Amino acid sequence: MGNIALVVGASGITGSNLAEKLISKGWTTYGLARNPKTEIANLQPVAADLMDLDNLKSALADIAPTHIFITSWMRNATEAENIRVNGLMVRNVLEALSSKKSVQHVALVTGLKHYLGPFEAYAKEGFLPETPLREEHPRLDIENFYYAQEDEVYAAAARDHFTWSIHRPHTVIGKAVGNLMNMGTTLAVYASICKETGRPFRWPGSAAQWNGLSDMTDARILAEQLIWASTTATAQNEAFNIVNGDVFRWSWLWNQIAAYFGVDAVGYEGTIQPLETEMQNDAAVWKEIAAKYHLKEADLSKLASAWHTDLDLGRPIEVMTDMSKSRKLGFNVYQKTNDAFFDLFEQLRAEQLIP
């Protein structure tokens, strides 16, 4: 087809799954990261620093992508710094390629913090939108680095005349090591520790999340929507929610995960019991487990992101995402959420990341 993709953030959950999907569909695919993956067959790695425009221009000198997929972000101490850094990274990538005039479409992955607020105000009183979350919901009256990233895409599109799409997943489930937002692997590691030590698999979150309806996004579904939107004329210059297509209650899914690992599930007991606290002394335990079962990664911090799992599971409202906008335009891919978790767990076991 002559499509040439540049996946920005190719080492993360979203980027790596997208790169594999693009390659399977015959795209020439470059994967940009500070430390790019080399294990994905036929992915052409590009090592570059998104904060350094000159470094980016040099790294991309011989690459003229038709499509750019931006899946990368960096967390900082304050939202003001999140805005500065993450806006700059998007701006630098698009500026580095501007003179080539090769780019036809740019797809940006953000998420539900678009509706629920940034880290400092996430799902707090005063920032709770009506659910199900819909794309037409107005921006919150608060600074948000997702808005800054979007604005950089809009400005570059006006300058360079490419089309764009924005994609808003809800808790992406997929494999990645060293990822900052990695609920699937975090829960797999936590359940494995519970299994080995005889501890109960204890629900860490709120009553609203335990009892309410929720949904999630398999990284493979997100990859499919990114490619669909970038190649479908009616989907251009639009923002889309993206989830699996089913809904569930954590009171059901928690027991499903516990049964998979053969551990005793404990549900909501009246208070939030953060996973970050539950796992704070587990680094040494995981090293012992990794040695016993000959696992590839003994550093717990590279597999588990308990803080982010707590952020999602501690929300005071149920969170569901409306998918009718892309469905009406023809995107009808579906994934059952518990199967997404089980597929991930099997992959983690096959690659010797959990026992």
Task: Note down, in words, how this protein is organized.
The chain has 355 residues and is an alpha/beta fold. It folds into two domains: 4-169, NAD(P)-binding Rossmann-like Domain (Rossmann fold); 178-215 and 247-319 and 334-351, no CATH class. It has helices at residues 13-24, 53-59, 79-98, 113-116, 145-160, 183-197, 207-211, 219-231, 250-261, 275-278, 283-293, 306-313, 324-328, 337-350; strands at residues 4-8, 28-33, 44-47, 67-70, 105-109, 163-169, 172-173, 201-202, 213-214, 217-218, 238-242, 248-249, 265-266. The longest helix has 20 residues, at 79-98. It comes from Pedobacter westerhofensis. This is Nucleoside-diphosphate-sugar epimerase.
How would you concisely characterize the structure shown here?
By secondary structure, this protein is of the alpha/beta class. It is built from 14 helices and 13 strands.
